[in-house]
Amino acid sequence: MAIPTELIQPFLVAVEQGNAQLASGRQQPSNNEDTDLPLNGKALQASLKNGDRTLPNNSYFHTYVFEGKAGQQITIEMDSQQIDSHLYLLLPAKERLIAQNDDIYPKDFNARLTVTLPENGVYYLLANTFEAGESGSYSLRAAISQR
Question: Which of 5-9, 16-20, 79-83 holds the top average pLDDT?
């Protein structure tokens, strides 16, 4: 079950304004910076845990940012042995959810997006756990697909 788009729209505005702490009255975490997402295919390692920012369903997330160009085909993969990975690709300037993915296959809880970017701009990627309070480590990899 994905988070409904109508819950993501206000979140897009909050991400753009830098105050994407939507879910609760918790203190702003110390690790609330957006991380640059390299599009070179190298894996980033991270962990989602208590104290991270949360979406309206109380699932943890990290925000990654990259500059994209119209027509680029990007593949993003989030792999974990500990959490049910979920990805959201956002274009905050237009308040648009570009793509989302929960599972690659029914028994594979990793997530993969392959999308052709609709325009030039700054894109945000939310690396998210599917369940509220779910925590664990993951790897994230993004690359421009060769045509």
Answer: 79-83
For residue 48, the tally of other CB atoms under 10 A from its CB is: 24
Cα separation, 75 vs 70, whole angstroms: 14
Q: Per residue in 30-73, pLDDT tens?
A: 345 689 999 999 999 999 999 998 888 888 999 999 999 999 99
pTM to 2 decimals? 0.79
Query: What does each C-alpha distance from 120 to 67, 71, 123 come to in angstroms?
Result: 8, 9, 9
Q: 135: buried, middle or exposed (CB in 10 Å: 19+, 13-18, 0-12)?
A: middle
Closest CA to 24 of 48, 49, 52, 64: 52
- In a 13 Å sphere around the CA of 26, the CA atoms on its Cβ side amount to 18
Record the tokens describing residue 102, joined without a space.
């929960």
